């Protein structure tokens, strides 16, 4: 079971994953960063470039805000040194656009300017600038500020790497945008449960190493299929998994996305079985249950350890449908709400109404026809 | 009469960036500054306050880098107060710039 535990993320822990900030391993802290200098004044550009190159950084320059943004969107930088007074697009405009851009929002910016008065300096900081240095910039101060900003960025990158390792990237994005807060909100979503049929006897017939390898391959395939359709795997328990379509981020058509993912999953398992047959191994079969409706999605747990999850009748129903695949010997089962949202896009068999354990009302159950695969 | 160029600031610049580089930087400034002065003129003729302010700001920033404190103060005054000084203010600025230019060239080459 893997859960998302953002509050447990410890900055300073090495992840070993090759992120952009680790491309410079071995260099002294902060040295050798890729910097962008945006200044319309040629003397300032030359001098700033010189100072930064003497500190061991790689420097590129832009002569106005518009060019600076183009470069920031086309290439990777570690930090921006931004002048405020510039033609075409000034420094304020650059800060505003960076704040509205997910890719650029966390890039550190040090404003270097000779603005008169404190109002504009305050505005820079409010727009997200890390720091403000008055021109002419003292080289020693410049070095200290740059190293401090780069160090902060390195820790932030490391933290994000860790969050992405323990959470899905959708959850990581959601955390970055909305912050962490316990509690749920009601959303329309489609929930999927899936597991491997006869997994227990499979485990007994092979070595633990083989089982782990099988599970790793299985999860890799299922993750690909689910995330390929915009879904998020939020729980893995043994051979079972739970995926959500439409939360934390909305999807155009989450019922259709979930059914397509299910068909992709079955197709991938078929291909995997061909490979297994070559190794004289038993084929594996999966069962998938899908239900749509209102769910309560959010972080549950404590401030120290929390999981992004969905709860509600829709979730329970999807789990029941998955269990029901064994009884009716069908691969993919849907509830009535998912079926209604699909229209004629997928061919189905109506299996009539079923009253599940713990439910007072009978629900209509539909099976996806095997030949419906695209 | 105060120095046209603050020797300490200029020496610090040479220390930090290297004397050879400062020669290059002065050369660039002496190419760029006349463009800024011309921009101040044309902005005043066309009554373009924003362009005027930006040119004055740019000139001010460079003057402070080289230690041309008096020229910097004149530019700063133009940045803050706009075109109120009229053509005489620009005449005085240009005259003082010629002194600055001569002294910068001398200083940068070890004078």
Features:
heterodimer, A: 374 residues, alpha/beta, Rossmann fold, Alpha-Beta Plaits, 5-stranded parallel β-sheet, 11 helices, 13 strands, elongated, B: 111 residues, mainly alpha, Four Helix Bundle (Hemerythrin (Met), subunit A), 0% strand
Give a structural overview:
The complex is a heterodimer of chains A (374) and B (111). Chain A has 374 residues and is an alpha/beta fold. Chain A starts with 33 loop residues before the first strand and ends in a 6-residue tail after the last strand. The model of chain A is unreliable at 1-29 (pLDDT under 50). Chain A is 41% helix and 24% strand. Chain A is elongated and about 75 Å long. By secondary structure, chain B is mainly α. Helices cover 84% and strands 0% of the residues of chain B. In chain B, helix 3 packs antiparallel against helix 4. The longest helix of chain B is centred in the first third of the chain and has 28 residues, at 19-46. The two termini of chain B are 19 Å apart. The mean pLDDT of chain B is 92. The chains are: A alpha/beta (374), B mainly alpha (111). The interface between A and B is medium-sized, with 17 and 20 residues.
């Amino acid at each position: 079971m893997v859960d998302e535990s953002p509050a447990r993320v410890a900055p300073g822990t090495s992840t070993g994953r090759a992120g952009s900030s680790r491309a410079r391993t071995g260099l002294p802290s902060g040295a050798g960063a890729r910097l962008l200098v945006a200044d319309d004044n040629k003397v300032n550009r030359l001098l700033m470039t010189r100072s930064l190159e003497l500190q061991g950084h790689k420097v590129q320059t832009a002569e106005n805000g518009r060019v600076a943004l183009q470069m920031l969107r086309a290439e990777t930088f570690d930090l921006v040194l931004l002048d405020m007074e510039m033609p075409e697009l000034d420094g304020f405009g650059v800060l505003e656009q960076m704040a509205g851009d997910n890719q650029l929002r966390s890039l550190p910016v040090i404003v270097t300017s000779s603005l008169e008065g404190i109002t504009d300096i305050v505005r820079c900081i409010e727009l997200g600038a890390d720091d403000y240095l008055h021109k002419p910039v003292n080289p020693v101060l410049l070095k200290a500020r740059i190293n401090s900003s780069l160090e902060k960025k390195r820790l932030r990158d490391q933290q994000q790497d860790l969050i992405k390792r323990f959470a899905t990237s959708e959850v990581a994005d959601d955390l970055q945008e909305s912050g962490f807060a316990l509690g749920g909100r009601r959303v329309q979503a489609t929930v999927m449960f899936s597991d491997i049929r006869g997994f227990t006897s499979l485990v007994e017939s092979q070595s633990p190493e083989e089982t782990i390898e099988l599970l790793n391959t299985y999860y890799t395939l299922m993750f690909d299929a689910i995330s390929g359709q915009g879904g998020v795997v939020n729980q893995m328990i043994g051979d079972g998994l739970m995926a959500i379509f439409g939360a934390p981020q909305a999807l155009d058509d989450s019922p259709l996305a979930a059914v397509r993912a299910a068909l992709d999953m079955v197709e991938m398992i078929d291909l995997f079985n061909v490979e297994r047959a070559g190794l004289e191994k038993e084929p594996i079969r999966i069962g998938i249950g899908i239900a749509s409706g209102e769910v309560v999605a959010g972080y549950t747990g404590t401030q120290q350890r929390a999981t992004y999850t969905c709860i509600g009748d829709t979730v329970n129903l999807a789990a029941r449908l998955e269990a029901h695949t064994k009884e009716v010997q069908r691969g993919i089962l849907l509830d009535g709400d998912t079926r209604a949202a699909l229209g004629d896009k997928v061919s189905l068999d109506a299996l009539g109404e079923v009253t599940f354990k713990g439910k007072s009302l009978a629900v209509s159950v539909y099976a996806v026809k095997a030949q419906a695969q695209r | 009469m105060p120095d046209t160029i603050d020797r300490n600031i200029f020496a610090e610049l040479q220390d930090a960036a290297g004397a050879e580089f400062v020669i290059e930087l002065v050369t660039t400034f002496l190419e760029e500054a006349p463009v800024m002065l011309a921009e101040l003129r044309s902005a005043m003729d066309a009554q373009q306050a924003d362009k005027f302010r930006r040119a004055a700001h740019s000139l001010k920033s460079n003057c402070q880098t080289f230690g041309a404190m008096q020229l910097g103060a004149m530019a700063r005054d133009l940045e803050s107060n706009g075109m109120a000084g009229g053509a005489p203010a620009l005449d005085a600025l240009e005259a003082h710039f010629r002194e600055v230019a001569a002294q910068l060239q001398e200083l940068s080459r070890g004078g």
